[in-house]
Amino acid sequence: MPVKLPPNIIDANVILRFFLGDDKKQLLKARAFFQKTEFDQEETLLTEIVFAEVIWVLQKVYSIPRKEITEKFSRLLAYKGIKTILNKEIFLESLRQYPLHVIDIQDIFLAVLSKKNNSTVITFDKTDFKKLDAIFSEP
Question: How far is residue 139's CA from residue 137's CA, in Å, rounded to a whole number?
Fold first, then answer.
């Protein structure tokens, strides 16, 4: 049975404008939208790909420290109207580990997801998954 999605799906650029505040007009619109999601007056889906994209852009393009990214995103994930297909705890645990490693969020996310589900990550990247204490195997 397919998962019922919320009426909205958020794009990375809205989250980025909200976090960065670098475009006043877009910031005001993003802030108004997220105020509604904070109190569950509006629901929106945060996908894994947008989660990873926002973190990548904040770190690689804007050089924002991992700890600051973690704090901002953790607060946003606490908003009642922010919905995810996977359990939010996987996102939050990935964020908790993010400042502890010099590893991309995508690999951290896969490691956390695999641990929560007793799954094996199929990868050629033994180094990062060994550091993350994840079960992994080559194909």
Answer: 6
